[in-house]
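Weekly sync notes, structure subgroup
Attendees: PM, AL, DS (notes)

Item 1: joint prediction request from the bench team. They want all two components modeled as one assembly rather than separately. Inputs as received:
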Amino acid sequence: MPKSLLIISRQAPWSGPNAKEALDIVLAGGAYDLPIGLMFMDDGVFQLAPKQNATALQQKNLMANLQALSLFGVDDVYACHHSLAERGISPTSLAVDDVQALSADEVRILIDRFDQVITL
Amino acid sequence: MKFAIALYSAAHSPSSRRALRFAEAALASGHEIVRLFFYQDGVHNASSNVVTPQDEQDLTQQWAAFVSHHQLDGVVCIAAALRRGVLNEDEAARYQRPAVNLKAPWELSGLGQLHDAIQSADRLICFGGP
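Output from the run, pasted for the record:
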């Protein structure tokens, strides 16, 4: 049975390549049919903010990749509820579907459930 | 124990030194390193163009010597390396760039190598940030 991997993505989408590079690990793992989870935490939750305008920032939009997660077999997608609340992002209006917002206790249980964890 | 070691920060960051000292200690204690994987700014650790002041630790040189001496599998993520200008001979030719700064013992490959290392190791140890 393959080991499960949780990626914790903590960087805003417009602060350099970190957010994209965290997502690339997730998509690569999904392409290999590995059990992968993705959690957005701290500034990483900005990746889920609605109505982002990449063109205005002359940046590439990550949204297409984020919305393709389920096509890559990545269905375990989470966001830290506290990080969302701190940044005024409502868990019910996220730009990506089927993201579960987790309390601090649930985050702890989630991290425990995975064999390996990468935080970027 | 079998370790996979991932490094996300450049050679001038303290986490590069910590990762190398951890790797040395792991082997010295009889453990195995299944693969080193350099990602994000960690790809700079494999650049042969880094020049360190004489009175400072030359981490890129120490990493290369360590990997060569122990014949370890030192993999540098190709997408992260291209973006940061770390190219081997093939990639410099492919993209018509004038300089080659990635040579043996380092190898360019994809993120599949990270997942493969995670699957075959007992523990994945990551070094990043400052």
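Discussion: Chain A is about 30% helix and 20% strand.
Action: AL to compare against the crosslinking data before next sync.
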